[in-house]
Amino acid sequence: MQEDYLAKWLNNELTEAELSEFKKSDAYATYQKIRATTATMQAPDFDTNQAWEELKVQRMQAESKILTLSPFKSFLKVAAVVAVVLGGAYFYLNSLNEAVATQYAETKEIILPDTSEILLNAESQVSYDEKDWNNKRNISLQGEAFFNVAKGNSFTVTTDQGTVTVLGTQFNVENRDGFFEVTCFEGLVSVLYDGKENKLTAGNAIIVVNGKLSKASAVKNGQPSWMQNESSFKSIPLNYVLAEFQRQHNITVDSKGVDTNVLFTGSFSNTDTDLALKSISVPLQIKFTLEGNNVLFYEKNAP
User: Fold this and answer.
1) pTM over 0.70
2) Which domain holds residue 17?
3) What is the pLDDT of residues 241-292, one digit of tens each?
4) Cα–Cα distances in Å, from 52 out to 46, 47, 55, 56?
């Protein structure tokens, strides 16, 4: 009850009866002294405009302190955003590339967005940008592939040894370690090798073995022999022949005392292993031993 009387008393809202009863309380004398003392107190002058200006200055100082004390945090935020953007761009660019690969003893047919065709030989890979194909018909090749290109804008095959450019034709490209061959079967092919352009008409080829370029002939409107399940060679070092046999038959090849630099001319089957081994060994007058997925070539007089 006292709390109610005190509030009314301070606001001069007590009735005569309530005031008379309140004066009888023990706390009345104390409240009376407090009221008398506070009545003589004066509040200090307060300039609202000055206070507002001071507050704005304080805020500006606080903001400047935050900027100067934590520039590295701001840098981290920017770096994080840049990292996200670059990461997204990297993922996006890499997601554009279509890649097709073959293993040993495997071939694959690929139909490109413009209906151009690629037949991929064993242990080979091609990659291209499918989403931007209509603007850039670019192929990256590792290994060997036959191309039947639909007419259109420039069609480019890029390898680590040379670049082949056509508009619409049929040609074969083989890009192996130390070996590069381009054969034109139809139309016209431009081959850029070692900074020089070589133009091939139908029925012509260039072969680069260990950096040495030579020219060869081919059958017009024909196809590479490997598309007929046969690998053919003309004056090619034996080590490349044995490497191709390994790719086509998925058999590990080793040699003992055999000169793998000797030139080989001939063919072997890509499907009949025994026949292929004989096709290689008989002309060179060497022997072989086949055990499981391993074959050893050796000289006839070897112990």
Assistant:
1) no
2) 2-39
3) 999 999 999 999 999 899 999 999 999 999 999 999 999 999 999 999 999 9
4) 11, 9, 5, 6
